[in-house]
Write the structure tokens for this entry.
Amino acid sequence: MDKPPLALDPNFSGASEDFPALLRRKGLLQVAPEPTAAAGGHSFVPTESTTILAFKFAGGVLVAGDRRATAGNTVVYDRADKVLEIDRYSIMAIAGVPATAWEMARVLEHSFQFFRRTQLQEMSVDGKVRALSKLLRDNFGFVIQGVGIVVPIFATYDRNSKPEARLYFYDAMGAQFEVTDYAATGSGSPAVRGILYYENNWGAKKLQELNEDEAIAIALRALDTAAEADTSTGGVDRSGKIFPLIKIVSRDGITTLPEEQIAGIFKQRVA
Amino acid sequence: MIEEPYRWVEAIANRREYVETQLAQGSPIAAVGYRDGILFLTIGRRSRQKLYEIYDRIAMGAIGHPGDIERLRLAAIELASTEGFTRSAADVSLRRLAHYSLSPVMKSAFEQVYGPPYLARLLFAEIGSTPKEDLFLSVDYDGSIAADGPSAQPRQRFAVLSGSKASSQLMEKFLQQNHATDAQLADALTLAADAWAVGQMALGENAIKELPERDAIRKHRDEQLTNSGIEAAVLERDRKSAIRYRPLAEEELRANLQR
């Protein structure tokens, strides 16, 4: 017992201090720049260093994410899973702080399962979408303080709804937006959004008419484009043979595409 | 009145008789191991579900009062989910769930004669990564536990639940003679439905005492099936998803029953 418990720490200022403030004081937290009057109070730039995209195609919804995890300028991990299965028909893809995002995914997974087991029925799409919204909203205090921002995409498939494939993106405060064709989030997303918009309007086929191989090719091209200009996006690592993670949610549930299939299509249509 | 030990024993005996009478009409449930997992099956009123998913690898069947079953079912789900969330799904254990949580609660409700006992019998199965690790376990209204799992004793890889002791003993006898652990699902369905019929014939006023011939069993089964629903669920060992529980659709079940 060298150190006194936190409450007895003479430097601890009690109720006026919150957990992020404590972390900051102990030097355990990278300090987000304080809003300054000169910058009009808008100097706070949250980081969502990654690229996630999702679009509807003929076989369901495709969700893809690169594998790079960064801390500032450092690449800390090159095999991160940012496309997470929540239940048999729901995928959450994350841009933002992994610790918070993975915890959110865990909470969602358990709450959907708990609902199904206790209520003896599947939670509705609206219920699931709201549940994620609530988690983001509850997390917003941390976001303001510069930690724990998460900006997810949520894709699900419900045979009882019209349309059956549903795709949503969120903002950091928890507002959900349903999209008809595609969504992208993360630091590399502007490039991806441009590509998907272009493909959907002037491409050989509309996104919703693409078959699986064509859809995968476009997802890979879009991520490769994002990685070209964005240091935080891994894209396709040609030497390390690390490919983006692609999952498809359809009438039959979720399929994770095997790496060989992605590699084959990459070689054929992208490289 | 019950301050005297003798009175307490008498009160418990009365209570046991009362609970047994209440449970006596419960439609049997059979749980049998087959090649790819464990099958739960029962036949009865369509309006009432009797088989439930508790956690990724745990299923439950129950007979008794719906209110009591519901309370115990929710308690089991909550305990398993809390453990699974704070640690991991692999740390959820049916043995611990039954021995440390359900059994003591049911025992004290039964023995505290001022309060109501649980009118319920529960049958659980937990699927392991190999057939050796499968566990069948039942908890009775007085908290007593019967288990068939990894142990020194020879395994039988099936378990039954019924309204009376005579009925479940006859079902067990039937399964001991006919159960094959490497059966296909369709064969396991027929076996479980036949076991159900045996158990049902051993209940009520004209209860049979000995195992009937196969034809008599199937005749009784098909007669009962015209007016009742058939309910079944499986725990599948090699499912891709972590959730091993899958309810079976009634049409699929009826099509697979052998005449």
